Amino acid sequence: MRRRPDIPLTLPPVPPPATPADPLMPPVSDPADLEREAALARLFELHYASMLRLAVLLGADDPENVVAEAYYQIYRKWRRLRDTQAAEAYLRSTVCNLTRMRIRHLQVARRHVENPPEEVVASAESTALLHDDQRVLIDALQQLPARQREALVLRHWLGLKESEIAAAMGISCGSVKTHTARGIAALSQAMEARR
Q1: Which of 18, 57, 85, 158 is the most buried (most CB within 10 A)?
Q2: Rg (the chain; Cα; Å)
Q3: pLDDT tens sequence across 164-188
Q4: Angle between the N-to-C axes of helices 173-194 and 132-142, in degrees from 0 to 180, rounded to the nearest 10
Q5: Rounded CA separation 146/141 (Å)
Q6: Measured between alpha carbons, how far is 90 from 82 in angstroms, rounded to an integer?
Q7: pTM > 0.85
């Protein structure tokens, strides 16, 4: 084919792509998404430290990851929340469930390891959260069954009512009373034995 001399071969310049103000944040145009982002940011600011402590007290080996996963799950399910005021309770329940699942996973994994680890080392964050006088109590608390430990932490550390504990743990109020009473009895016995 022959080329016509009056048609140029060069293409018009392509405009550069628009750069967002913050390269890490995707542009959000939906007002509902903006509201969700703002609500989650407030929830993070208000409750991250307490959720981290909750995960530590429940025995999570990686509390930061547990809490991060809990925030991710509430982010994904934000539109399905019936009441956005219940987000804190949902977050607390999610931290409890994720910690329980993580502990269960580690127990199963350790059963199948030929050489189990000799000593579990606490993270720097976990150690910084605890004072010397609390370490004995935390050690005794870690020896309790998971349900008793959860009931005691939710009741006495967070100061929740029995109905709120039942909702967070997914059990009845009567079971909360049973787990709390048995946990206190076992914890008292363990503390007396250490003195």
Answers
A1: 57
A2: 25
A3: 889 888 899 999 999 999 999 988 8
A4: 120
A5: 9
A6: 11
A7: no
